[in-house]
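Usage

Read records sequentially. Each one opens with the input sequence:
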Amino acid sequence: KIIVGQYGEIIGGHIFGSDASELIGEICLGIAMEGLAEDIIHTVHAHPTMHEAIHEAALATQGRVIHG
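and closes with the structure output:
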């Protein structure tokens, strides 16, 4: 889950599971760069990988989930 503020800015996230330590970095980078969920949505994520879950979480902030 990606948590966004009023203007779509990334302010936090929740990740759990065996690959959590590899996935949290993208959310941390988004917070550090004051990025928007839209920035993650427009980032290319390799398929098939666990990193696609971050893309899905960003889409979910806008109600646009592909695999829900």
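Summary fields computed downstream for this record:
- The beta strands are 2-4, 10-13.
- The domain at 2-60 is CATH 3.30.390.30 (Enolase-like; domain 1).
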